[in-house]
TrEMBL record:
CC annotations in GO: extracellular region
Span of domain GH10: 21-343
The reaction(s) this protein catalyses: Endohydrolysis of (1->4)-beta-D-xylosidic linkages in xylans
Full protein name: Beta-xylanase
UniProt pathway annotation: Glycan degradation; xylan degradation
Gene3D superfamilies reported in the protein's UniProt record: Glycosidases
Amino acid sequence: MMKRTYSFLTKDVSTLHKRATGLHTEMIAKGKNWFGAALTIRNPVDAQERAIVDNYADFGSITPENAMKWESTEPSRGVFTFDGADAIRDYAATQKKQIHCHNLVWHSQLPLWVSQGKFDNATLISIMYDHIKAVAGRYKGSCTRWDVVNEALNEDGTYRSSVFYDTIGESFIPLAFKFASEIDPNAKLYYNDYNLEYNNAKTDAAARIVALVKSHGVKIQGVGFQAHLTSESTPTSAAVTPDQGVLEAALKKMTVQGVNVAYTELDVRMNTPVTPAKQAAQAEAYARVVRSCMAVEKCEGITIWGITDKYSWIPGVFIGEGSALVWDENYKPKPAYFAMLKAIQESPLAPRYYYQINDQVRDRYVRI
């Protein structure tokens, strides 16, 4: 047996591993798994937007914004269209980025043949299985994570009325996770929802979903906190981004059940027009979210819901609100970018140390 010699290095290792400074590389250096962004493959490609998302230092993971949703992948029963989703997969492979695949079962962006099909219980379960088998099966080995079920809850913690819940009952949730785990056993499986960040009845209900899935002996490994937040009170949200303690408590409500958490669709909107003071408040809100993730060991990573305000979904849905992303419409990083980077860098979690084994440099994380 070859004898191994160990030489531990606790000082500057820049001569061993050079890395550019960015949101993703700094997250990795602190023991997290990714910083990412939602992506739409545009035709023609927006070269300025693409140059930003290509930068691995900032983005090591991508989430398909719409390309893997049911209406995009199975517009007619048994007829699958994968061009958009394939483009995301191929881009991620070329750029060596993770994919947070999104999503398999959701009440929205469903084709009418599903939402208005009036199927009985057994038929809809079969349809759900066939869809998951086709989509998750096609991207097996490419998806680091899957949002298996998306937005199954009302704000008061009750189940949302949907074709799946109304026909199958709450068991549609563990069934979806069961099918996904059978078809792509290596992907991490997430439940994903919004307004979980306030540590309220909806947060409690998401924790019950984790318990429900586990009670069926089915794998669930994470809860995604979408984090569509505001930096000030707006006509659509009186509540602003919670303080760090509330955010951490909400995250830990899931992690105590043995699952990971992540911020999966982060954006922080404001009333427009924009002012420097509003951008400063937004930057602090983004930083609070980052600090909460860094403070919770099982918070894996953060994904922002887009790159530039030019393409954000917010103004089209929340009239009079916007400027929610981290790059402005002219592709310039906003104060929020630098606030997040600083929050990551100042985190005390998991500094990276390096050790050498027989002249090969490897890395590991040590929490102190």
